[in-house]
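Progress note, sequence design subtask.
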């Protein structure tokens, strides 16, 4: 995690010099606005105390917490891509649990992690194939042909396996399941990657080998996707002598700290750096499946309701929404919403001039639609700081949209195909959009780093839309609000 040595000038919010922020109807035009009849009040800066620690900087004594955050924050893809849904995938995977326990007991490995690899790699399908030519990943634990033949000492006759696979597909198409089963049995003999027991035993052999090379169970699991050689290079670039936990290696490697290790992880470009977190997420899914399948089904509904995990952070049936301009006015008055200033030099965020452009159609002022929940505002500032520290430069990011009420959302949905007519997280005040227009490649890369890191901390859910990045802040971002301190 980026260590913010002096967390000054992170946050600037609009506040009144005295008294609460009030909503009222201006007698001259009837528009609902904020502040004095003369306009928006002066900006008074809020800053963090000198030397305030970053509440999301990694320390080894918090490793368990960071592992849980990363597993939760990066679990969405398992729900989104599980064949037949996560409950069906967990059911298929659970069939192999007794075999996983047998293999784990012989090798001294954790059966939960072996089972998690099965869920993540194949969703419990022993005939899963990533490469039609069968040179690539195949079987319950997706073993490459070359790895199986060499390091894992499996029988893998790719040519024979391809011929049998074509015959299996043909007879299944002809409605001959028994003949297909006979051919599948033959295929398991010539290509042991299709044999569940052989596949799990081979995976255990790999993890045992990697553990010997890398000295840690967590690093061994990471190497299952990344490769031992690649991971050793990352560890060497990280430095500091002894082998770090993967949590430390991951969270302390940033563009500005252990930069060589971060660059090597980023250059892999195949999700290798987040593989361990997805294995932990798969482990948690299987534990939930055994303990409370209804809870897993509920989680699946939330995870798949949108293109990100935003409803997991703020379920619709548990989250307050703003229905009308009057509700927004009350929220500002109660400090449940904070105005979003246009102070790019101090905040690193530029407010788009069009923000709140439909307000006039509701006969209210645009200021109502220029604010966020305190947690989301602090998170936006933290995100901008991360991007700057990651080498993004001083050019601000442009925020195009913040809070809305349901009346405004309804108007927007009539002319904007990206705007939902259902539950919009913008109506909660936890969501904002950042324009996908950057000062250059360096800012784009730095902003992507900030998004990825915040997602790994389970502080945001985000999705890429045609014109903007749609970001939803978690309530946990309140740890940033608690550090804000009014000047003078």
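Output:
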């Amino acid at each position: 995690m980026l260590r913010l040595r002096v967390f000054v000038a992170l946050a600037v919010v609009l506040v009144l010099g005295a008294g609460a922020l009030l909503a009222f109807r201006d007698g001259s035009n009837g528009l609902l606005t904020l502040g004095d009849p003369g306009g928006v009040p002066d900006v008074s800066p809020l800053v963090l105390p000198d030397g305030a620690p970053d509440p999301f900087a990694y320390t080894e004594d918090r490793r368990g917490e960071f592992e849980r955050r990363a597993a939760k924050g990066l679990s969405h893809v398992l729900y989104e891509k599980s064949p037949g849904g996560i409950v069906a995938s967990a059911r298929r995977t659970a069939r192999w649990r007794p075999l996983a326990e047998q293999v784990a007991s012989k090798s001294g490995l954790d059966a939960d992690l072996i089972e998690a690899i099965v869920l993540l790699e194949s969703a419990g399908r022993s005939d899963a194939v990533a490469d039609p030519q069968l040179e690539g990943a195949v079987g319950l634990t997706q073993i490459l042909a070359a790895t199986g033949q060499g390091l894992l000492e499996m029988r893998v006759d790719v040519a024979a396996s391809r011929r049998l696979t074509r015959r299996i597909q043909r007879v299944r198409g002809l409605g001959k399941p028994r003949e297909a089963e006979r051919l599948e049995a033959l295929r398991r003999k010539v290509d042991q990657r299709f044999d569940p027991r052989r596949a799990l035993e081979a995976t255990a052999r790999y993890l045992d080998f990697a553990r010997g090379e890398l000295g840690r169970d967590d690093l061994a699991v990471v190497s299952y996707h990344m490769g031992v050689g690649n991971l050793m290079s990352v560890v060497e670039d990280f430095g500091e002598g002894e082998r770090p936990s993967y949590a430390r290696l991951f969270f302390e490697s940033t563009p500005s700290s252990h930069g060589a290790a971060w660059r090597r992880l980023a250059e892999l470009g195949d999700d290798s750096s987040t593989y361990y977190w997805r294995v932990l997420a798969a482990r948690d899914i299987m534990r939930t499946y055994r303990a409370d399948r209804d809870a897993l089904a509920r989680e699946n509904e939330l995870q798949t309701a949108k293109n990100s995990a935003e409803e997991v952070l703020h379920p619709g049936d548990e989250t307050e929404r703003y229905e009308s301009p009057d509700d927004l006015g009350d929220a500002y008055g109660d400090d449940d919403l904070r105005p979003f200033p246009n102070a790019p030099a101090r905040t690193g965020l530029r407010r788009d001039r069009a923000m709140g452009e439909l307000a006039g159609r509701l006969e209210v002022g645009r200021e109502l639609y220029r604010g966020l929940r305190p947690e989301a505002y602090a998170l936006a500032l933290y995100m901008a700081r991360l991007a700057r520290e990651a080498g993004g430069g001083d050019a601000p990011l442009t925020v195009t949209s913040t809070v809305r009420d349901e009346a405004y959302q309804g108007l927007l949905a009539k002319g904007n195909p990206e705007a939902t007519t259902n539950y919009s997280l913008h109506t909660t005040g936890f969501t904002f959009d950042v324009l996908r227009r950057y000062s250059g490649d360096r800012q784009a890369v730095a902003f992507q780093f900030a998004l990825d890191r915040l997602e790994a901390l389970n502080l945001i859910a985000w999705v890429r839309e045609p014109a903007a990045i749609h970001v939803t802040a978690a309530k946990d971002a309140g740890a940033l609000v608690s550090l804000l301190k009014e000047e003078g």
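The first helix runs from residue 63 to 73. Work on this subtask will continue into the next period as scheduled.
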